Amino acid sequence: MRNLEWVKNDLIGWKLAMIEELRHKRYNPTNKLARFYPLLDQRNFTQWQKLWAIHGGKAIRIHDSGDFFSREYFEAWLDIAEKNKHLLFYAYTKEVAMTKEYEQLPENFILIYSMGGKQDHLINVEVDRHAEVFPTIEELVEAGYTDQEDSDILAALMPSNKVGIVANNIAHFKKKMAGKTFGGMQHERDEKRSAKLASA
User: Fold this and answer.
1) What percent of the chain has a predicted confidence (pLDDT) above 90?
2) What's the CA gap between 133 and 117, in Å, rounded?
């Protein structure tokens, strides 16, 4: 809550503090091959990504929870990425409509659309990098998705745009999923909402 209030009340001050923090030596490349590098198909890497991985560049996952709640906040992160070209930034987001308005993102900034939101219909699953949550690894593989369990950075850099995540083994949560993916659950909610509006 403290960080959220800081961003909302002093976005410029927060951004400058973030830029300064990311220039600390702990975010410098290690100059050792990244440990996850052998897990990836480097043939699909951009030149920047190859150099970043070879030199042991660091990655910043934006948000452990939460999302880009405004254009100003999203643009602040884009500016932070532009000013820290030695780092790879990546983020999961359900803010599909807003982020798709930005045709050109920094080369060190990768978005992964998260299935299971009200804007799922805007995600082109054949083209857009996106993540889907499955009840089991078998269903994930059968659907043609690639598991990112070995390293979350795979979600940003794997050759496939179809990122698969197996649901946490929490009984009441799995019961709620009832064998469906997050995208499947949202599709059911959308259909119920449409049916309700049609009958009103």
Assistant:
1) 63
2) 12
State the maximum Cα–Cα separation within the chain, in Å, rounded to a whole number.
Answer: 63
Count Cβ atoms below 10 Å from residue 186 Cβ, excluding itself. Answer: 19
Average pLDDT score over the chain? 91
Q: Which residue's entry shows tokens 């300064």?
A: 20
Please give the Cα distance from 97 to 99 (Å, whole number): 6
Q: Where are the domains of the chain?
A: 2-199
The predicted-structure confidence for 35-74, as pLDDT tens digits, reads as follows: 767 767 777 888 999 889 888 899 999 998 889 999 999 9
| pLDDT at residue 110 in the model | 97
> Which segments of the chain does DSSP mark as H helices, in order?
2-9, 11-21, 47-54, 71-82, 96-100, 137-142, 154-157, 171-177, 182-199
Would you state the pLDDT for residue 137?
94
Q: How far apart are CA 59 and CA 139, in angstroms?
A: 29
β-bridge pairing 130-134 and 109-114: parallel
- Buried/exposed code over 60-76 (b: 16+ C-beta within 10 A; e: otherwise): bebeeeebbeeeebbeb
Compute the residue count for the chain. Answer: 200
Neighbours of 117 (CB within 10 A): 18
**pLDDT score at 48:** 93
Question: Do the bridges between strand 162-166 and strand 146-147 make them parallel or antiparallel, or are there none, so unpaired?
Answer: parallel
